[in-house]
Design a protein that fits this description.
Blueprint (H helix, E strand, L loop, with lengths): L6 E5 L3 H13 L3 E5 L2 H5 L7 E7 L7 H10 L6 E5 L4 H10 L3 E4 L4 H16 L4
Parallel strand pairs: 1-2, 1-3, 3-4, 4-5
Length: 129
Amino acid sequence: MPKVKPLISIVEDDESVREALKGLMRSLGYRVEALTSPQEFLSSRHVRRTSCLIADMQMPGMTGLELYQRLSTSGKPVPTILITAYPDDGVRERALAAGVIGYLSKPFDENDLLACIRSALTHARSGGR
């Protein structure tokens, strides 16, 4: 039986960034779901199947960090990478202390993102969700 590829969920309100990330993840052989808002992700059937979440920090209604915290407190933690166009060292420290796998500033290096994804998938496989 073929191994199921990990599902990477992207929550990003900027369509161009969302589509670029989606294309990159597909080119690397991952299954991808790209959603426009934290609320859309939380109400989707993808939450439980997601192996790695890439979420924008600044989105209407809920930040990426708030999304991560909501998943964690609901008992459905997902290894999460936050991306932001407005880097803030204080927010970065809080996010990493809360358990976020990575905090990347846009534009980020593709290799930095891939390193974070590998770390998130290792974390997910080890049951560290």
